[in-house]
Amino acid sequence: MRGLRNRLLTVLLVGAVTPAAWAAKGAANGYFEFTVNGAWYRYSEGLRYGELATETISRFGAGIAYRFLSNTALEISYMTSSTRDKYRTEVNNGGTAEHLLVDSINRTQNLSMNIMLYLTDRSASFRPYIKGGIGVSMKGATFDAYTVDGTTGLDTKNLSPLMPSYKLAAEKSLTANGGLGLSYFLLNSVALELAGSVYASDIDKAKIFLDYSVTGGLRFVF
Fold first, then answer.
1. Which pTM was predicted?
2. Cα 144 to chain center, whole Å?
């Protein structure tokens, strides 16, 4: 499986170099597009032992694409995301119930090479597109549990021995992704963008995981 990952990394590297080579040769009607996008949202999961349980998701990404045909581009994109869960739980400590504040974070980084198909030409103000590709991801996680003061009900910032902390080292896997987006050009070279994607990670393993994202951002044409 390591050989497969290495070959995929080679494909990504070639994909990153190829657009620049095309541009250097002066491919007809070719041009670059650069995107930055992100998202932040928080879900409330109700009260647990007097504390609001939340799930916070944040994402940030960027990409560069070379549009080598009137409706087709090759893109290299990067996305980093984190999911943070904070909630209180109750554990048994020698026959006495004790409250703990749990703080866990799952982090994922995705690097992918995509083919983009535009559904309108460059002159349109609204430019929808679809895309799909392959890549690699790195996943890691941390878990901490803090003691809660029985009198004040506040967390003490002290780690609890009842639920040991841990940190999972980043793990690599192969991914496939697909998505769609819509760019609205305010100027000839600047657009607002809304995009949705789905990532299928661990496609080189027995169990595949799906991750969905919706982001907003800017697209620049130059």
1. 0.79
2. 23
C-alpha 88/C-alpha 145 separation (Å) is 9
Residue for token pair 């209180």: 88
Cα 116 from Cα 213, distance rounded (Å)? 17
Core vs surface per residue 119-149: b (16+ CB within 10 A) or e = eeeeeeeebebebbbbbbbbbebebbbbbbe
- What is the residue whose two structure tokens read 């392959």? 134
Query: Alpha-carbon distance 125 to 4, whole Å?
Result: 41
Cα–Cα dist 76/114, whole Å? 6
In the chain, the amino acid numbered 209 is: F
Please answer whether residues 187 and 20 qualify as being in contact, where contact means their C-beta atoms are separated by less than 8 angstroms: no
Q: How far apart are CA 210 and CA 222, in angstroms?
A: 34
* CA–CA dist 64, 46 (Å, integer): 40
Q: Would residue 153 be called left, alpha or beta, if left means φ above 0 and alpha means ψ between -120 and 50 degrees?
A: left
Quick: pLDDT tens for 168-181. 988 888 999 999 99
Confidence of residue 29 (pLDDT cuts 50, 70, 90): low
- Spatial contact of 81 and 39, defined as CB atoms under 8 Å apart: no
- Enumerate the domain spans of the chain: 2-117+124-170
